[in-house]
Amino acid sequence: MAKRKVHRRARKILGEEPVALVWCGLNRDIPKPPKDVHRAAGKGRLKPGHHWMVVTGMILGFAIFIPWMLLDMFGQWLDRLMDPRRRGRPTPAPAPAPRFADDADADDQQQGPDAASSGPDGLFDGNWNLAAGQLLLRWYGRSPNRKRLVLLTGDRVCIAASRGRRLSPTKADDFDIVAEFPHHEARVQGTPGTHTFLLAFPDGSWLRIGNLTRGGDADAFLRTVSA
C-alpha cells in the first residue's frame, strides 16, 4: 500500500488527484536488442541498478566464498597427491546426459528470436521499432530503480520513478515522471486478480507490466482499468 507521502507527491507532480496508482515493475529481464536498434535508441542501460547494500553484500560474499573454494580445491589436490592409489589414474569423464527428441524440440522453440519477449506471457510484442519496444529500450534510462509508479488521470497515463536506488521505493517521495502518454497514445488493459496489466499502443505494440504491490492499490488500479 502506497504511503500518504506517495499520494502527496503524486498530486504535486501531476497537478491533480490521480484516478488510480500502483507500484509495479517488469516481470522479467529485458531481452538483448539488436545492436543497431540499441545504438539508435542511445545505448541506454537494459538492467536495473543495485542498492549499495546489495553490492556490498555481494562483495563480502565473494571475499568469503572464493578463498574457501580455493582452499577446498587445494585440499582435494593435496589428497590426491598424497594417495598412492590414485597417482597416475586419469579422472573419468562424466557420461553425457541422454538427449530426447522432446528436449531438442524445446531448445529449438526457446532459441526463437521472440522466445523471451512475445507470446501470451511475454514481456512485449517483440518489435523493437514500435512504441512498446522503444519504451522498453529507455525503461531504465532515467532511473536505475526496478520499481515504477504508474499513475492514471482523466486523460493521461504517466510512469514515474525514484532516481535513487532505495530498497523500499513504495515509501519514496522523491519520484518524478519519466514517461507520459495521452489516452489516445496509450491505454492500460488489466483484469482484477491477475496482478499484471498491458500498456497497449495504437501501433499494435504492447508491454506487459507486473510485480504489482499487493493490497488495496493493486486491486483498485485493476478494477479501474477493467471498468
Question: Would you give an account of this structure?
Answer:
The chain contains six helices and seven strands; from the N terminus they run αβααααββββββα. It is of the alpha+beta class. The two termini are 21 Å apart.
Concise structural overview:
The protein has 227 residues and is of the alpha+beta class. It has helices at residues 4-14, 35-40, 52-82, 101-110, 131-137, 216-226; strands spanning 20-24, 148-152, 156-162, 175-182, 187-190, 197-200, 206-209.
| Tally of contiguous helical segments | 6
Average pLDDT works out at 79
Separation of the first and last Cα atoms: 21 Å
Low-confidence stretches: 51-58, 100-115
Please provide the ordered H/E string of secondary-structure elements.
Answer: HEHHHHEEEEEEH
Largest sheet: 4 strands, antiparallel
Helicity level, as a percent range? 25-40%
Please state the overall shape, judged from the principal axes of the Cα atoms. Answer: elongated
Features:
alpha+beta
Fold blueprint:
Elements (H helix, E strand, L loop, with lengths): L3 H11 L5 E5 L10 H6 L11 H31 L18 H10 L20 H7 L10 E5 L3 E7 L12 E8 L4 E4 L6 E4 L5 E4 L6 H11 L1
Antiparallel strand pairs: 1-2, 2-3, 3-4, 5-6, 6-7
